[in-house]
Structure prediction request, 312 residues.
Amino acid sequence: MALSGSTKTSMNLSHAFGGVGSSARRGVGPPPLALQRQVHARAHRFNDKAAVVSSPASEEGKGKGDKPVTAINVSMGDFVNTNKIAAAGLAAMIASSPLSGAAIASEFDVLEAPAPETSYVIDDGGILSKSGKRSIAQRCADLEKKTGYHLNVVTMRKLQFTPDPFEFSDKVLETWYPTIEQGDRKGVLVVVSTGKEGSISGGPSFINNVGNDILDSVISETIPVLTTEEKYNEATLKSVQRIASGLEGKADPGAPKVRKVNNGPNYQKKGEVNDKSKAFDLIFKALIFIVLGVPLAQVGLSAAQQRKKEEE
Prediction:
């Protein structure tokens, strides 16, 4: 479906204000200044896309009154196709790149892959077990059956080309569901094992119904705590369960408890030192008595026996 320039502009701004591609970041929402920067950044990207793009038809029609074709007059599907072509071109340059080719390739692999509509999970990072993926997919399927909300889970070993997990999850969501109608009830959970971090992006209805408290806690507590302990299956499943509880209107299971580490002083207290000193003194005195007292007692006993013999 072709979209007019005004429609695309409003769609892009709706992205910035929590539409398709809105990220679940820490806190209840960005402050006004940060929000203005976010709108400016997204509007800037839109303006770049709206630059003049010459087509073969426009080249042939030069001088005949034909105007060059602009991106504003191109359908949303053409935008997606253009992004895919650009991604494929960049992926072809990876082999000669000095950066981590495997990490960059993984990001493009995910963006090029179709949305996991029935499997729900793309374990590109290879951090989930087979049973873990089954449990996660089953919980996502139950969620969609009960509520109509669709949650996709993506795991990554490392983000190289797009290091910000929130930006990456935005890209994934907007690539798979390029319109607000398609992405309104969709969400993407990203877990990055190397950085021990994650992100959540979703359509307006998805984000609003999960709630800021759960979104913030999943990103700042559930994922960092469990991935630090290298419990990737549990970190991903617990995150999905907490997101699902918000969408289903159930009580939040809560974040995992952080194991307390004894960070107290590693030196002994004065009383403990004194007690050990007293015990050491007693042991030392007993050893001195054994070493010196026993031989002296033997000498004295021998002398007494000698005198007794002389008297007899």
